[in-house]
Amino acid sequence: MATVAAHDELNVYESAEARFEIAARQLGLEDGLYRFLKYPNKEITVYIPVVMDDGRMEVFTGYRVQHSLVRGPCKGGIRYSPHVTIDEVRALATWMTWKCAVVDIPFGGAKGGIICDPEKLSRSEIERITRRYTAELSEWLGPEKDVPAPDLGTDEQVMAWVMDTFSMHMRHTVTGVVTGKPLALGGSLGRREATGRGLMMICNKALEKLQLKPSQCRTIVQGFGNVGSIAAELMHETGYKIIGASDVHGGLYNEKGLDVPKLVDWVYRQHKPLPEFPGGERTSSQEILFRPCEVLVPAAIENQITSENAHRVDCKILCEGANGPTTAYADDVLQQKGVFVLPDILANAGGVTVSYFEWVQDRQGFFWRESEVNQRLQDVMDRSFDQVVELREAHKVTSRTAAYMLAIRRVASALRLRGIYA
Ligand code: GLU
Predict the structure, then answer these.
(1) What is the pTM of this model?
(2) pLDDT tens sequence across 375-386
(3) 302 lines ligand 1 (CB under 6 A)
(4) Ligand 1 centre and the CA of 148: distance in Å?
(5) What pLDDT does 7 receive?
């Protein structure tokens, strides 16, 4: 690690590679397999011409990276953000492969992204961008090929447009081409809450292991989007004491505990800025990470905890709601501090797990009760946590390395069985 130049710390692809390398070495992965799994299967770049509301034509750049097809169709979200880069999409696609394998669902990993700022686009511009992007990619998408889902900056309406555009090209309705769709179009009950719910399920397991009760856990949630707000709400209901929350506008801290249902109402029903909520002290979105707590949930974006600031983290459990919130350089610092890390590829895998349930329901044309979805999610999260902890203890490695080992082992064994087609 020390040989990598310091300015590369924030390159998420290098973070993903560094973790892969540690786990692959620990597993004694053969050289050929190592190289096969290190690189994506396919990277597609599309230039998306769109007529804007004012009549101008703009061209947006979009990507879809398919990392692995070894265990099934590719699976992973589509992100709309001005900060999208090919390296980021590549890292996120790789993480999806490991995430699907950790929870043992039959998918490989993919990710998509469009460089655009959804805050500055009208809904109809977003619709046109989405439809043209989907049309350009249509030959590579499909329930048996590659199944997108929401991610940063995209939502169930965007998924509905992807589904409709793809279906128009196929000349019949194909609900299983995307997940995270509206319920009326073949979405699954419980999908919207799944990432936050899965996160809490993994935290509950960690608490059990450390013999802590939710009421003893001061909890801070960075990020108040789909993942952070739902995790905060569910954890609050379960008895965790949510003492801090933040979004892009800033943070809010109250050592007595925030009134989470009122905060959710403030942000989502009244559309007011989170830090202006009357019921806490204002901080910055970054500073909230360093307040003392038992459970810290970074659920915003990448690269929040780095080698520069990891020594300031003051928690027992770090539960990664975002993808890649901790850099590879920060891993060692957290390990020395004895923080129990619940790595992203395990902690936030509830979303893709219920995406899998949605895909299964679409293909069967038979839909489950919400309690059934949540129970199956519970089974998957509990089993995955136990398997990661078992490997962690057997090999005396961090939970992150154990999660990667579990994932790489599963993909590698499928690959050995399939062999290489020549
Ligand atoms: N974008 C989510 C993730 O990073 C969900 C992916 C999916 O459901 O396919 O896990």
Answers:
(1) 0.96
(2) 999 999 999 999
(3) no
(4) 8
(5) 59
306 pLDDT above the threshold of 80: yes
Is 42 in the active site? no
CB 67 within 8 A of CB 108: yes
Is the distance from CB of 179 to CB of 100 less than 8 angstroms?
A: no
Contact assessment for residue 340 and residue 317, using Cβ atoms and an 8 Å cutoff: yes
- Residue 55 Cα to ligand 1 midpoint, Å, equals 34
Q: Quick check: helix, strand or coil at residue 221? A: strand
CB of 66 within 6 A of ligand 1: the answer is no
Distances (CA, A) of 349 to 95, 231, 241, 255: 10, 13, 23, 30
Catalytic hit among 38, 42, 99, 111: 111
**Domain range 41-176, CATH class:** alpha beta
H or E stretch covering 43: strand 42-51
Q: Is the fold of 41-176 the same as that of 194-338?
A: yes
The reply to whether ligand 1 has any atom less than 6 angstroms from the CB of 398 is no
From 6-15, 35-44, 55-64, 131-140, the region with the lowest mean pLDDT: 6-15
Domain boundaries along the sequence of the chain: 41-176, 194-338
Question: Is any atom of ligand 1 closer than 6 Å to the C-beta of 151?
Answer: yes
4 pLDDT more than 70 = no
Ligand 1: which residue has its CA nearest to atom 7? 352
Ligand 1, residues 74, 90, 195, 361: which to mutate, most atoms within 8 A of Cβ? 195
Class of the CATH domain delimited by 194-338: alpha beta
Cα separation values, 6 from 14, 308, 327, 328, Å: 11, 11, 12, 11
